[in-house]
Amino acid sequence: MKAKDYKSRVKPIWCPGCGHYSVLNALTKAFSQLELNPVDTVLVSGIGCSSRLPAYINTYGFHGIHGRALPLATGLKVARPELEVIALGGDGDGFSIGGNHFIHACRRNVNILYIVMDNEVYGMTKGQASPTTPELWDQSKLTPRGPEVPPFQPCAVALAAGAGFIGRAHSGDPKGLTQLICQGMDHPGFAFLHVLSQCITYCPEQQDWKSITHEIPPVTSDRALAMQNILQDDGFGKGIFYCQPRAVWPHLPGGAILTGPSSGGTDQIEEIRQQFAVHADA
Fold this sequence. Notes:
It is a single chain. The chain is α/β, with parallel strands linked by helices. It has a single domain, classed as Rossmann fold, CATH 3.40.50.970. The chain is 33% helix and 17% strand. The protein has an eight-stranded mixed β-sheet, sandwiched between helices. Strands 5-6 form a two-stranded antiparallel sheet. β7, α6 (174-186) and β8 form a beta-alpha-beta unit. The radius of gyration is 18 Å and the shape is globular.
């Protein structure tokens, strides 16, 4: 299937210039490159501008409640390991009401990809400050002096909580974004992709992001070095900060891993299901 074949008949209603359009296009290109079957692919989202995305792709989708995309995606993947499951959300949905779920999804390490489209603002509810809004951002009437607290650091939290794949992309770099989505989907275990996705309606200054994003040092499997790279980065580095596979939950006899169609294949899935059934009976 070509990328366009993965798009549904529902037309996006995001604002002109929204970075989420690029994420939509990158997802369909990644699906095409990985040759995913739409009936074996599920997008799970919460609430917010970014969480509308499942309706725009011709796969199965679940539009959940605010902050709950990860527990829904986790439950689905554990119950149906043969499916390719991608969770989607925004910075408010994922790091505010969904922040606790984010931490424990990293820790559990179920084999799903979590894409967060971060525009540093609550765009659907008229531009309030979000967990990732810069400390001195003063363009909201609710925070005329800015949030006055340091912004949430998604990649650092993901690493501390145990995520085995942590990357950052920019919606203005569609080729790099597509590549990182493919790499995240191929990673065995929980993969977190932080996407800088501009909201020019409430944050027109974000149009400058394309000129200030830059490549980060080569990917490492050393957690200490990865944390150093994350904390020393200015928040606009693109690439993979950390990649180190570890045991995927739920654990199966012999170290078998619950995977999806892009990395395992139906024969492996059936074998793992049989092993899981035997293990459960025992």
